[in-house]
Amino acid sequence: MKFFRKFKILGTGSYLPEKVLTNADLEKIVDTTDEWIRTRTGIEKRHVAAENEATSDMVIEAAKVALKNAGIAASALGAIIVGTITPDTMFPSTACWVQKGLDVPGIPAFDVSAACSGFLYGLEIASSMLPAIGKPILVAGSDLMTKVTNWEDRGTCILLGDGAGAVIIAPTEEDCGYLSSLLGADGSLGELLIQPAGGSRIPPSHEVLDKKLHLLQMKGNEVFKYAVRKMGDAAVKAIELAGIDPDEIDLFIPHQANIRIIESTCRRAKVPMEKTHVTIGWHGNMSAGTIPIAFHDAVTSGLIKRGSLVLFAAFGAGFTWGASVLKF
Ligand code: UT7
């Protein structure tokens, strides 16, 4: 087995806000039905952050669990990377707020903006930084989507949820880490899934609020088509680069935006649904939080053991995508 880059995942963690919003709850907010949401997306419920909760609060909780499982103190960390598109503040970065919360001043801390692919982007960057840092790195993926959701748009509000997942990775000589990892993007398609205002292109104004330009907009059908193609291509390529057969994959953890996208990716990658960890029913699409939360769940429930081969694949706004094969 040839490693693209060795590193060890010392521990994983996740956090989900207490409040749960079911499809039945959504029936009271927009013109939809539980049946439509289940059959068209696979989602049954999602978690919603409290009013006073921000992305860094969720990441700090997930990080504490990951540090405990890794058996290390926050003071042992060499860097903090957070994949998010819903930062606490435009600046400082969410990673800096997390650093403050964990009380580990001095170490580098920064965010990665790659939407639903944010965790895979973060893990790729963190693993390449490990030799220089020489200490464990906290990599988190988290989004608080419900605060950028248009609750009058039934095409998007039924999809989204909040949560955070985290891993602690460390340098190693053991046979674990990436067999393959690839990232990609196509910025020419950015308008199809976008939070138009709030940045330097369209700064906040009364007009922005009136037109709800500070909230997520998506051309669902178009995004669906690209998601199916790009996530499928990326998964196939990651398996090919790893030099393994698809049936050697022990568990597939895809980004979870729609059960039909997951099923299609499985068919393309020749990985059966039985070997795919599907969490969309319980959480909906939590953007960058989705994969690390599903990963932590798979590790704690014993679906992934030391030595397991795990396939990741993600697709999101940008567009961005990524896929990797990892030996745990
Ligand atoms: O995180 C990565 C990026 N995001 C994604 O990958 C999401 C990709 N897109 C999707 O998952 C799907 O496109 C959606 C779930 C958003 C929509 O499903 P769809 O099967 O593509 O539906 P559609 O947009 O083609 O709409 C079909 C019908 C429309 O009604 P008419 O025009 O046929 O009368 C919609 O108005 O379904 C209607 N519709 C709904 N009906 C009940 C749309 N949303 C809803 C809803 N409840 N919530």
Structure commentary:
With 328 residues, this protein is α+β, with helices and mostly antiparallel strands. It folds into two domains: 170 residues, Thiolase/Chalcone synthase (Peroxisomal Thiolase, Chain A, domain 1, 3-Layer(aba) Sandwich); 150 residues, Thiolase/Chalcone synthase (Peroxisomal Thiolase, Chain A, domain 1, 3-Layer(aba) Sandwich). Helices cover 34% and strands 23% of the residues. The protein is built from eleven helices and 14 strands. A five-stranded mixed sheet has the order 1-9-14-13-12, sandwiched between helices. It has a five-stranded mixed sheet with strand order 2-8-7-5-6, sandwiched between helices. A two-stranded antiparallel sheet has the order 3-4. Strand 13 and strand 14 form a beta hairpin. Helix 3 packs across helix 4 and helix 8 packs parallel to helix 9. The chain is globular and about 55 Å long. The mean pLDDT is 98. The site of oxa(dethia)-CoA (UT7) has 21 residues, from helix 2, helix 6, helix 8 and strand 13.
